[in-house]
Design a protein that fits this description.
There is one protein chain. Helix content is 79%, strand content 0%. It has 16 helices and no strands. 44% of the residues are buried.
Length: 377
């Protein structure tokens, strides 16, 4: 092992984390709950959570497609209602569990924040999150699964752009390159009739997907704010989202002239969607609160890949070369952003490695105190 004098700040922290984990495991201090917390400290963990959320959302989209094909089901608002209701119940018990584990009283602030600013951010996140999910589910009922998912993924571009104005992230030439690249990809996916004769997608479904991507982008920014400037535990964030979906879905059901279907199989499938969606939303919320919005959005690209694979394997929908090319351009636009963020992170790492080791040790001592407090709870 290298001596501390020969270690940079980054290398020192890595070896120190490994020794700390080994020490806790060998001493028997680490239980299941604290093992999760130790895992959550690993640098890759937030991105891995977002990756899992993408797979979960693709599975959710596949269930919706199966409902449409097998039962001729077209009530997207009913799906949103049950998804939100199940998420509301699960999140309530998670908030209750967090309150008990931290020995804090369960009050309204546990769900809606102690500060008025936090409450406003939660309300904004719930409102635009509903717009995002409502647009997504409606588009799934009217256009192919892969196309819908890709159009919703435009939220990646919008959230990176909004992060410049609301989160203080740096705007770069990479973002300016990504926007037109993704725009061309959208043109290839939609295939408007004035360019591609007779092969255009359902315009209502396309519009719903684009509106949904805008709502999702604003919701992503709110999630980041709830992890930084207006801190809030992730289960409270998903609780408010579930509450918003449950409340907003009822008037939307009538505004869109949809009907509530009282069929046991459909209701069971909607509840299953609620479980899948809640687990996926929890993974995405935890991941996005711990990592920059642009990087986490890139990991959501697993959603596009899984959606096209599920579409070709489990549905009757096909994907032509033009559509796949358009999806590839949208993904390329996101990867351009990732490349810029990666270069930026390397600059930060080089400057961090030049920090005196004593400063790194002092920071790590403070982190150890925080970890021990979490382990006790």
């Amino acid at each position: 092992m290298q001596s501390p004098a020969n270690l940079t700040g980054a290398h020192y922290r890595e070896q120190r984390a490994r020794r700390g984990l080994t020490r806790r495991l060998s001493s028997g201090q680490v239980k299941y709950k604290s093992c999760y917390r130790l895992l959550s400290e690993m640098s890759f963990f937030p991105l891995f959570l977002v990756f899992l959320s993408g797979i979960g959302f693709s599975t959710q989209a596949l269930v919706i497609k199966k409902l449409t094909s097998h039962y001729d089901f077209t009530s997207s608002s009913q799906i949103v209602f049950f998804r939100g209701f199940v998420q509301l119940i699960i999140s309530f018990f998670l908030v209750l569990r967090n309150s008990r584990s931290t020995a804090t009283p369960l009050t309204l602030s546990s769900f809606f924040g102690a500060k008025r600013t936090t409450t406003y951010v939660l309300l904004t996140r719930a409102t635009f999150g509903y717009i995002g999910i409502c647009g997504s589910f409606y588009s799934l009922l009217t256009i192919p699964m892969g196309d819908s998912t890709t159009l919703i993924m435009l939220s990646t571009i919008w959230s990176s752009l909004l992060a410049v104005f609301f989160l203080g992230e740096k705007g770069t030439c990479y973002l300016l390159m990504a926007i037109p690249t993704a725009f061309v990809g959208v043109i290839l996916i939609v295939q408007p009739s004035f360019i591609f004769a007779g092969s255009s997608l359902n315009p209502t479904g396309v519009l719903a997907a684009i509106i949904g991507s805008g709502g999702a982008a604003i919701a992503y920014i709110c999630v980041r704010m709830l992890g930084t400037s207006s801190p809030m535990y992730w289960s409270a964030v998903t609780f408010n989202q579930g509450l918003g979906q449950t409340v907003y879905a009822v008037p939307t059901l009538y505004l869109l002239n949809q009907t509530f279907v009282w069929d046991a199989h459909i209701i069971a499938a909607c509840c299953l969607l609620g479980v899948i969606g809640t687990a996926s939303q929890a993974c995405m919320t935890m991941g996005m609160q711990r990592e920059k919005s642009a990087l986490t959005s890139v990991m959501r690209m697993s959603d596009i890949l899984a959606s096209f694979c599920f579409q070709l394997a489990f549905t009757d929908e096909t994907a032509n070369a033009v559509t796949v090319g358009g999806a590839a351009l949208v993904v390329s636009g996101v990867l351009i952003i990732l490349w810029g963020k990666w270069k930026e992170s390397k600059i930060v790492e080089r400057s961090d490695d030049k920090l005196p080791l004593t400063a790194v040790e002092e920071n790590d001592d403070e982190e150890d105190e925080q970890i021990e407090m979490l382990t006790r709870t």
